[in-house]
Design goal:
With 137 residues, the chain is mainly α. The chain has 7 helices and no strands.
Length: 137
């Protein structure tokens, strides 16, 4: 790896771990194969080392954008990963709800329905189960 790529990789790995957590990154890097190793290096250098480390947008905003984009694209596995990561970037459950509501206006009700279902399940998995509303009927 040339020096610039090595620097991007190191900065990218630092950001990736900070956003996604060590357990996720360890799992991804430990499961590399000869087939996927270059892909893992590429996303670490460019997505994390080049884009997420840019000074123009803060991590909180990047997290908002990533969640909305994953809803728009219907990439639910990545959406759920970034629901968990959102808490590392200063977001909370209210922020996630607002992102889903906003995205549903532009992506459609089915995308919003699915996003709420996915986010609710993911929040439950990480011990942040949304509280039920007591029925007043």
């Amino acid at each position: 790896m040339e020096e610039l790529d090595r620097k991007r990789y190191e900065e990218g790995m630092k950001m990736r771990r900070s956003v996604l957590g060590d357990a996720w990154v360890d799992k991804a890097t430990e499961s590399r194969t000869e087939f996927t190793e270059e892909w893992q290096s590429f996303i670490t250098r460019y997505a994390w080392g080049e884009v997420w480390t840019r000074p123009g947008i803060d991590r909180r905003t990047r997290s908002h954008m990533t969640l909305a984009l994953m809803i728009a694209l219907g990439r639910w596995e990545e959406f759920n990963l970034h629901v968990v990561a959102a808490f590392n970037n200063g977001l909370n459950e209210h922020d996630i709800k607002e992102i889903i509501l906003h995205a549903a206006c532009y992506c459609g009700v089915p995308a919003g329905n699915n996003a709420f279902a996915e986010a609710s399940a993911t929040l439950a998995k990480i011990g942040r189960t949304p509280k039920p509303i007591a029925s007043g009927l």
